[in-house]
Amino acid sequence: MRALKRTLLVVIVALVIIAIIAAIISMQYPPAPATPTPTTPTPTPTTPTTPTTTPTPTPIYAETITIGVTDKVTDIDPSNAYDFFTWEVLTNIMEGFVKYKPGTDELIPGIAEKWEVSSDGSTWTFYLKKNVAFCDGTPVKAQDVVRSIKRVMTIQGDPSWLVTEFVDDVVAVDDYTVKIILKTPASYFLAVAATPPYFPVHPSYPQDQIVSDATWGGAGPYCIKEFKRDEYLVLEANPYYHGDKPKTKTIIIKFYRDATALRLALERGEVDIAWRTLRPQDYVDLAKNPNFVVKSVPGSFIRYIIINVKMDPVSNVLVRRAIAAAINRSELAEKVFFNTMTPLYSLIPAGMWGHIEAFKEAYGPGPDIELAKKLLREAGYSETNKLVIELWYTPTHYGDTEADLATLIKNQLEATGMISVEIKSAEWATYVDNARNARMMLSLFGWYPDYIDPDDFTSPFLLSTANKWTGSQYANPTVDELLREAMVKVDQGERAKLYEQVQKILAEEVPFIPLLQGNLMIVYAKNVYGVEIGPPMLLPYWTIYKIIG
Fold first, then answer.
1. Are strands 177-182 and 123-128 parallel, antiparallel or unpaired?
2. Strand pairing of 273-275 and 64-69?
3. For an engineered disulfide with 443, which of 7, 178, 327, 392 has Cβ 3.0 to 4.6 Å away?
4. Mean pLDDT in each 10-residue stretch from start to end of the chain (549 residues)?
5. How far is 219 from 138, CA to CA, in rounded Å?
């Protein structure tokens, strides 16, 4: 019995010890989780979560953009206007059969929806859009186009040759069809028809009279709201325009007396765009300013001297050749234009087919002072009997550099020791009138293309029926014949050979002296967009806009 009790006691003690040990172990190592019993979950409906995004703010566009220029308007009348800036204004308030796609030299439909040319190239037929209207809502019909083109032919202003040299007759076939019969075929006539003399003008324009300050306009993207000569021009979007509406409702053009005033206006925010012309150093300075964009406009802008070949003493071809030999183009490019322009030895710009360096072949790269002296001696001049000539410039139309350019040319010519130069100047309107009436002996001019073809750099200058505007009084029947032959040729190689002959005669007879070729520059505020200038070098206002918020 006692043995049984003892055994039972031992077992109890052992069990207690085992329990204590187990408790200690469980405190150090928690039990593994129970294996869950597999079940089929019941789906709980959820609402999809939409990602949170910050809405893009809608840009706020300015209703007005101001363009500053040192240029001037001549005649707001395509029958007589023949200068670059006035043509720019006309292309924004008027429109012809075709126009240039902004930023390119591609011709696209203007007021004409389509056109066709006869198999022999002598007749062009234009089919007008039926939704074209002038600024007062008056519909534009074929009769308006015919009236406007014939008006140019009647008035016989400076650009009339662009019609009269090509067009034999213009007819309204019906209200929306215009037929133009050419005197002779011209492969590039479509580009000619894109120029202002072919723009329909409002019926208020008198048929036989030039109206320089006319505000009636045409059928372009903008209308003239207000014009105060040499101060400002206000344009408003044409509510009846048939094409894409202008991106900016109002364009204000302000005219400044010089480049200094224009730059100050730009830096003060008075203008959004500074266009034609700041000084070369201004472009260098403003390119460093993060608030502005300085854009170079590649193109075929040329500078040259016009010589009145019927005015003594430059009526002597030896004198004209001597002047050509004494010119140092590289010095002009470097000292006046900071090498933004390059030497040019023909009226046809370098890079354009048909160009040859005719003056370089005849007189070297320049200057050739000894050749100039030799020619002057042959003409009867010496160090004691100097050639006395007048050199004219206009102070603002081509920028403030003109006085510097004229002075440097004077110095170059006088370096011969046998030439004395008197410098004269006149503001643009007077200057143009002086040229038209052949009052200037030597005059500095520049040329922006009417259309992109060698003809546009030869015929306006050398064709005797087209060059009255220059005041050169130059006429050569052989040159006339060569130019007219080049007009009708289709093969580019054949045309190039004819232009080569013309350029050689130009260098021999020297009614013009080519000087420089270069780009144009434009500066605008960094929040201005849509500045698109192509090879024609005219600024389309309807593409420009400004973001203000």
1. antiparallel
2. parallel
3. 392
4. 40 43 41 42 48 72 97 96 96 98 95 97 97 98 98 97 97 98 94 98 97 97 97 98 97 96 98 95 96 90 97 98 98 94 96 96 97 98 98 93 97 98 96 97 96 95 97 98 94 96 98 95 97 94 96
5. 9
Q: At what angle do helices 402-414 and 317-326 cross, to 10 degrees?
A: 110
pLDDT at residue 55, rounded to an integer? 66
Only one residue has tokens 């215009």, namely 178
Q: How many CB atoms are located within 10 Å of the residue 274 CB?
A: 28
- The rounded Cα 231 to chain-centroid distance in angstroms is 22
CA angle 191, 196, 202 (to 5 degrees): 135
Asked if residues 405 and 444 have their Cβ atoms less than 8 Å apart, the reply is yes
Q: Containing H/E element for 502?
A: helix 492-509
Alpha carbons 313 and 321: distance in angstroms, whole number: 12
The per-residue pLDDT for 279 is 94
Among 283, 296, 354, 326, smallest CA distance to 518 is for 296
Distance in angstroms (rounded) separating the CA atoms of residues 233 and 251: 8
In three state form, how does the secondary structure of 313-376 look?
CCCCHHHHHHHHHHCCHHHHHHHCCCCCEEECCCCCCCCCCCCCCHHHHHHCCCCCHHHHHHHH
Asked if 199 contacts 96 with a C-beta cutoff of 8 angstroms, the reply is yes
Peptide bond into 313 cis (omega under 30): yes
> Do 183 and 168 meet the contact criterion of CB atoms below 8 Å apart?
yes
| pLDDT value, residue 187 | 87
* Of the candidates 264, 344, 273, 347, the residue with the CA atom closest to the CA atom of residue 88: 273
| pLDDT for the residue 490 | 86
Cα 210 from Cα 513, distance rounded (Å): 32
Nearest C-alpha neighbor of 539 from the set 97, 63, 61, 67: 67
pLDDT of 57 reads 74
- Whose CA is closest to 146, among 131, 161, 125, 165? 125
Distance CA 131, CA 141 (A): 10
188: DSSP letter: T
Q: How far is residue 235's CA from residue 222's CA, in Å, rounded to a whole number?
A: 6
| Contact between 306 and 471 (Cβ < 8 Å) | yes
| Per-residue pLDDT, 519 | 86
